Amino acid sequence: MTESHNGHSTLPKNPIKHICCIGAGYVGGPTCSVMALMCPDIKVTVVDQNLERINQWNSDKLPIYEPGLDEVVKKCRGRNLFFSTDMESAIHEAELIFISVNTPTKTSGNGKGRAADLKHVEGCARLIAKIAKDSKIVVEKSTVPVRAAESLMHVLKANNKPGVRYSILSNPEFLAEGTAIENLMKPDRVLIGGEETEEGKRAIESLCWVYEHWVEKDKILTTNTWSSELSKLAANAMLAQRISSINSLSAVCEATGADVSEVARAIGLDSRVGSKFLQASVGFGGSCFQKDLLNLVYISEKLNLPEVAQYWQKVIDMNEYQKSRFSQKIIECLFNTVNDKPIAVLGFAFKKNTGDTRETPAISVCKTLLDEGAKLNIYDPKVEKSQIIMDLTSPRITDFPDEVKSSIEIFTDPYAAVEKTHAIVVCTEWDEFTELDFNRIYQSMMKPAYIFDGRKILNHEELQNIGFHVITIGKRLNRIGLRTFGNVPQQ
User: Fold this and answer.
1) The pTM is what?
2) Residue 217 confidence (pLDDT) above 90
3) Measured between alpha carbons, how far is 128 from 101 in angstroms, rounded to an integer?
4) Active site located where (predicted)?
5) Which of 29, 135, 396, 466 has its Cβ near the most Cβ atoms within 10 Å?
């Protein structure tokens, strides 16, 4: 049933006047803020059990950083956009309810380490069934496994009240952190999956009508529910695959003398390939890629498709290899020991223009260095100090949190962070790092001074002329002072 939505702009039989979103996180907050801005005739209420988070959404300092989000929230908040912990009132009032809660990878039980944990989604379904007194359209916004809508409907029907009917839709998000507001304002496509029944089609029309306030009709695609659910996993898997592919080639480039940036440009100019997601780096991170890949691996195994599972597992393995390869080269280049050596880590977020640290490569790099006894000076312009400490003292990272705390220092000034360090490790591609005064930095560092550019954003020739030893990804740099993974400086 995949097709562009070609319906009319006329109002659906029961136009949506109230929307509730359960979950005030990275998806729910920005999505509903933009929806409120674009649909001034609809009241949008975002609810969450976390009082601290809701208070932040109602304050001048929002709980997440996203370019353009502050302005959108300030325009709509208190007008037709509300943030509340009163779930009962919001669910009762809404005709359409988004479920936008976390679906982390399971940490125990069946599918541990691979399957998505749907306990929060199930909890939302039970809450809706308990509160609802009239029919509702329930929309999966969270990333869920294929056929999760079916499970959702089972819970709702098993706890149903007389006269209350539910339509389940899948409406996955395709947001990239750092450009989420732009993605929401001008989406490549909006995907809506639903049941191929008259009731399902009416529900789809209602959600289409909401999006048609600002999205062109030919960009609204409708499918069956399962195609929609799988499309989200597939999109993230394909993007992650491109990153792992170019990262695998970066190792080949270092071994042969090719330049991965030139290779990426050459293949990216092929219209069949395209240039996006071909930037070699220390590895991918974020809340979606690894989680969705693991979910796809698990689903494939459960469907008795071991070859498919192994294929997608290799994308994850290559990402882990790239992070490990980069970390080990830092140690090798620093005379095979970093014990008690101060090292500056510039950037902790998984990418620029976000404060999100979920699955950031910086955690893996920092863990390796800390395990080897390094002292880390960490600077990131948007990540909170408490978040960095929590990430690096997590039980899955260390058994000795107090030792980690004594070995790291968080800085608010990059120049202070690099002072008297042996090396700088760039883990996030923040624009401001390209504008730093590296002459000043060089003078303040221990000699020889090293820069490990894990994002390929710095001017390596300029750094060499200053006197730095530069180690980068996917390029054999032969001039004195310039090195890659395969070329350890001879001292």
Assistant:
1) 0.89
2) yes
3) 14
4) 288
5) 29
